[in-house]
Design a protein that fits this description.
The protein is of the alpha/beta class. Helix content is 27%, strand content 27%. The chain contains six helices and eleven strands. Helix 1 runs parallel beside helix 2 and helix 3 packs parallel to helix 4. The longest helix has 11 residues. The chain starts with 5 loop residues before the first strand and ends in a 12-residue tail after the last helix.
Length: 203
């Protein structure tokens, strides 16, 4: 019999604005793009979608703006059956990632947090209880991450990307802590600020 799994994601939701072009512009340069597309994104929303598609009962707690991008940001989550009752509508616009991609798949990305910046400790506390496995990322304020961890009653999965400063006690609550090599170095520096660490390149 398949085990029931409940997953709650507290995190970010963005709209990705992606422009495709032959080459990326240099400083101060304007380059004509071939096309652009709008698509849902944000690490938190992506995690919620993945959990729902994997068969978990999934809830997403976050924030979007009162704008046309909100529907794009939440559309796939709604279609996948993610519970969205505790997504708030903020006065700030829905978060966006502005992405430029060239013909060699090199890219540059600028992220505007927008409504994601309102997912603070106070907002998370106001949202109420956290059920099931808690999944977090670094795209919301640290206070929001800490409040969610304080409310968690089950396993905590923390993908600290991007790396933001968290107290040691909160870093150690993660099981697992998901980071890449560069993020791991920054986290280790937080855990032990008196020790300077560098990863050696593999042979």
């Amino acid at each position: 019999m398949q085990q029931h799994i409940q997953v709650t994601i507290v995190g970010s939701s963005n709209v990705d604005i992606t422009a495709l072009m032959a080459r990326l512009p240099g400083p101060g340069e304007t380059v004509l793009a071939d096309s652009y597309q709008l698509s849902p994104g944000g690490k938190g929303a992506n995690q919620a979608l993945a959990a729902a598609l994997a068969g978990a009962t999934t809830e997403f707690i976050g924030a979007v703006g009162n704008d046309s991008h909100a529907g794009i940001a939440l559309g796939q989550l709604e279609e996948a059956g993610v519970k969205l009752d505790r997504v708030t509508r903020a006065s700030e616009p829905t978060g966006v990632a502005i992405i430029q991609v060239d013909s060699a798949a090199e890219n540059s990305i600028a992220v505007v947090s927008g409504a994601n910046s309102t997912v603070t400790g106070e907002a998370v506390q106001a949202a109420g209880s956290i059920e099931g496995i808690l999944v977090l990322q670094g795209e919301i304020p640290a206070s929001g991450i800490k409040a969610a961890m304080d409310a968690a009653t089950d396993r905590i999965v923390l993908n600290l990307a991007p790396v933001i400063e968290l107290d040691r006690e909160y870093l150690l609550k993660a099981n697992p802590l998901v980071v890449n090599e560069h993020e791991a170095e920054a986290v280790l520096q937080q855990l032990n600020p008196n020790r300077k660490m560098k990863f050696e390149k593999p042979l």
